[in-house]
Design a protein that fits this description.
Helix content: 10-25%
Shape: globular
Number of strands: 32
Radius of gyration: 28 Å
Structural class: mainly beta
Length: 394
């Protein structure tokens, strides 16, 4: 039998581990390089689209509409809420009817909170509640309606006034009466505005007190949940401001309320008992306010030698994110769901980004009634007289 020859091979474990380490390191370096390059590319692209300016547009599609006299429009559940004196309807971007609600009102006013819309006859006694599928409740009051607001789950708050006394009524989404309260002018002040939180549990009331020849506004918070049950009249907090008139209060989110006065804007925050978080003093008269769920803005008349108007935009912490002067006239100003600011002046439309860039300015052949983003950074829906136009900036 032939002898078997064996060969002993020494394994260089240390060298092998070094090679594996270098290989892995090379892969990680390449991965890091690709990631950084991708982030830089995306950042550059974002800055590019945020700073790019457009002066023209193309109409991608047009849908005819038959609007009632003095019809008004609002975004609602991805569609368009159209309301006027003789009824309300919900239509899509192609002007297809989703649902309709007939009524007769002298001065219709609408309030929308995500899933629900409420329409009432100002100084009348009727109100209607709608969700994305159509009408779901109706309210008839015995006193003139002054303000109406709706929560995200359909709860409706109505402020009424009669013989110098304010009355607060709360209703379910079906129109069933839930609760009430009285606001006597001599004791608490004249009610200016109300706002209800998205969950329907918190209610804010702005009350103007002119007693003793001095101006004072009090913002009162009610809680209709378990927290408020332990408080007198469900009042959980109150804040008074001497020398200030606060005609507008609005829950920007469920727990953040903004109060807009003639010389200041005030932010309140709290899930149960809202507290004052930030006061923004202003030295000039506020011309316009606008807001969405992330930002709010104030517009003032510009100073001598400056632009015609000055615009300041703040986040929900009260930090200024934009200060911008502009000279374009406007009839409407607002902030879109994509956080762009728009100005509408009859046939003209201007769009600003939060970086202060005038993204678009253009003229249309028909009066502009409403503008909405349509996905992508160049696509919009314009509601002009008798038409719904989907446009692309270029």
């Amino acid at each position: 039998m032939a002898d078997k020859l064996y060969r002993i091979v020494k394994s260089d474990v240390t060298g092998m581990n070094e090679k594996i380490y270098r290989h892995r390191r090379k892969i990680l370096l390449w991965a890091a390089f690709v990631t950084v390059a991708l982030l830089l590319t995306l950042t550059g692209y974002y800055v590019y689209i945020q700073s790019r300016m457009y002066t023209d547009y193309e109409v991608v599609s047009t849908a005819k509409r038959k609007d009632s006299e003095a019809a008004q429009f609002a975004s609602f559940q991805g569609n368009i809420l159209r309301y006027g004196k003789d009824g309300a309807s919900c239509i899509d971007a192609q002007s297809n009817l989703v649902w309709t609600q007939a009524y007769e009102m002298q001065s219709p006013m609408a309030n929308i909170c995500q899933g629900y819309a409420a329409i009432a006859d100002e100084k009348g006694n009727k109100a209607y509640i709608m969700d994305k599928d159509g009408p779901c409740g109706q309210i008839e009051t015995h006193m003139p309606i002054h303000r109406i607001c709706v929560a995200n789950q359909g709860t409706v708050a109505i402020l009424m006034e009669q013989n110098g006394t304010g009355y607060l009524h709360i209703y379910s989404k079906r129109g069933d009466f839930l609760a009430e309260g009285e606001l006597h002018t001599k004791n608490s002040g004249y009610p200016l505005d109300i706002a209800i939180s998205q969950d329907g549990k918190k209610l804010a009331v702005s009350l103007l007190d002119l007693n003793e020849g001095k101006v004072k506004t009090t913002v009162t918070f009610y809680n209709f949940g378990s927290t408020g049950q332990n408080e007198i009249d469900n009042i959980v907090s109150q804040y008074s401001y001497e020398g200030t008139i606060i005609p507008k209060v609005e829950f920007l989110t469920n727990n953040v309320l903004a109060a807009f006065g003639d010389d200041k804007a005030i932010l309140f925050e709290g899930s149960q008992k809202p507290q004052e978080k930030q006061v923004i003093q202003v030295e000039k008269e506020i011309q316009s306010i606008f807001y969405n769920e992330a930002y709010f803005g104030l517009v003032f008349v510009g100073g001598e030698g400056k632009e015609m108007y000055e615009m300041q935009v703040y986040d929900l912490r009260g930090s200024e994110v934009l200060a911008k002067g502009f000279s374009r006239g406007y009839q409407q100003i607002g902030i879109l769901e994509n956080d762009e600011i728009y100005l509408i002046n009859d046939l003209e439309c201007t769009i600003f980004t939060l970086r202060g860039v005038e993204k678009f300015h253009g003229e249309f052949e028909k009066e502009i009634r409403k503008i909405m983003p349509a996905g992508g950074f160049r696509n919009y829906i314009f509601l002009v007289d008798g038409e719904t136009q989907q446009i692309r900036l270029k």
